[in-house]
């Protein structure tokens, strides 16, 4: 049994009331990917941050309020862009299929 909470990553120790959280899981053919990256781009398309996906395909960013683009890069798949809205005090949960 893994330590992640149902539906995603554990939020233990994270004050969700003061954070704008963007998180989710990357899958390919219905299965979690274990190799790849998710980039966070601002509303103008400028690179802001990048994280590797976990062994279960999960990722998380602490972003500022506003509109962001998640660019997912996985070997053997075309890049996938997804728009997401981040807001302080909320968790934007994004599932990305490549």
TrEMBL record:
Pfam families referenced in this protein's UniProt entry, alphabetically: DUF1416
Organism field: Nocardioides silvaticus
Official protein name in the record: DUF1416 domain-containing protein
InterPro entries, per database record: DUF1416
């Amino acid at each position: 049994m893994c330590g992640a909470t149902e539906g995603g990553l554990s939020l233990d120790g994270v004050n969700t009331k003061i954070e704008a959280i963007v998180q989710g899981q990357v899958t390919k053919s219905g299965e979690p990917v274990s190799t790849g990256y998710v980039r966070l781009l601002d509303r103008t398309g400028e690179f802001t941050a990048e994280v590797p996906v976990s062994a279960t395909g999960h990722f998380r960013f602490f972003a500022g309020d506003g509109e962001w683009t998640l660019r997912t890069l996985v070997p053997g798949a075309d890049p996938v862009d997804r728009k997401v809205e981040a807001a302080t005090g909320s968790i934007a949960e994004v599932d990305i299929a490549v």
